[in-house]
Amino acid sequence: MTPKKKAIVLLSGGLDSATVVAMAHADKYDVYALSFSYGQRHSIELKAAAAIAEALSVKEHKTAVLDLRLFGGSALTDDIDVPKDRSEDDMEHDIPVTYVPARNTIFLSFALAYAETVGAKDIFIGVNALDYSGYPDCRPEYIASFEAMANLATKAGVTEDDRVRIRTPLIDMTKAEIATIGTELGVDYSMTISCYDPNGEGEACGHCDSCLLRKKGFREADLADPTRYFG
Amino acid sequence: MTPKKKAIVLLSGGLDSATVVAMAHADKYDVYALSFSYGQRHSIELKAAAAIAEALSVKEHKTAVLDLRLFGGSALTDDIDVPKDRSEDDMEHDIPVTYVPARNTIFLSFALAYAETVGAKDIFIGVNALDYSGYPDCRPEYIASFEAMANLATKAGVTEDDRVRIRTPLIDMTKAEIATIGTELGVDYSMTISCYDPNGEGEACGHCDSCLLRKKGFREADLADPTRYFG
């Protein structure tokens, strides 16, 4: 029996990354899930990540601890208010204060280290260029550029037939499409949490960018939204 | 008075990075030095980094804590013997076990976050493509690729006249040239430590790649080597 291909999947505990884990599984990968404790105020998502990793039978789940509060500069890590009820137009055109400087670059760099040590060639990340908050590090051209860099950074890049690939299966999908596919693949979205500003019980605020996009996704997909909202 | 330009300088505590701090100073930058406590066995270099940062009057010095032992795979973080007395030919052609997967990518990603939060456009790293251990993430093509990616990753990359630059002033220099320039700029190399396998007193082994290259540098530059060796 040929051993299964290995994939690193970045797992935040939200709707998108849970769906990506299920998709990588459906593609017959052994999933090595990677989460981050980076000083996020919504660290309750790490509990969701652990539950999802178990429910979706990943091969291994690691959580890297690094404190991005060292640099500050974001509403997700600092004492800055998370914006509520922004319009879709604002989301499309402004980089909001919830942007964490270089976060996806840091996360993908750790994924690259993980990939190199377990011998995985595929790194999955649930970025989305359609229903998203306007972060620069979610754009397709950023991902392509990271992949090019990754192949020069590592032993993998030394031989041509041995390339690392950054896989972004959600990049052109709407939230509704993502929720539909994940539901078909058996993801239990009640386990996931997308909110930037949840309460201590893991209930969602219902008004941050992430909640608004998630609500819209379930509504447009005509699926029941299992999220517990406090607001 | 125009405010001084800001630069992030990666500071390990070794000969190369101390020289880079002095060069950035000579170029009239305010230096924001960044070190990493990443689970390296030679963590005594962090004491050296702090001493150098103070001696060279950096504006700020931060140390990011992250544990790369999470992934393993290197003699610098794991219980794997550091190779001793390798030939120059081996150093040129083999990636040694001291290679830490994706280390420079992770370090530069943190530097990018730091740069974005303090408003620095220049990130200095003391990589060297001549007298080095054969790590893929020290090659000029890797650095160019990281810079391209960095400008798509951040707010900086959104406008064209606002580019982040990865500065590698040592990349084409021999260790002898580096030691000569640093000495001219007043770097006290007795404060630096390059060894991969030092003892608890911060004395160098004298036989790892890093010690061999450093010795050769001082010898060829006809400078007294202030390093304390135990072997």
Core attributes:
homodimer; 231 residues; alpha/beta; Rossmann fold; 5-stranded parallel beta sheet; 7 helices; 5 strands; globular
How would you describe the overall organization of this protein?
Two copies of one chain form a homodimer. With 231 residues, chain A is of the alpha/beta class. The first copy, chain A, has one domain (5-221): HUPs (Rossmann fold). Helix content of chain A is 35%, strand content 12%. The first copy, chain A, contains seven helices and five strands. The first copy, chain A, has helices at residues 15-26, 45-55, 88-93, 103-118, 140-153, 175-184, 209-221; strands at 5-10, 29-37, 60-65, 122-124, 165-167. A five-stranded parallel beta sheet of chain A has the order 3-2-1-4-5, with helices on both faces. In chain A, strand 4, helix 5 and strand 5 (165-167) form a beta-alpha-beta unit. The model of chain A has no long low-confidence stretch (mean pLDDT 89). The interface between A and B is large, with 42 and 42 residues.
Compact overview of the structure:
With 231 residues, the first copy, chain A, is α/β, with parallel strands linked by helices. Chain A has one domain (5-221): HUPs (Rossmann fold), CATH 3.40.50.
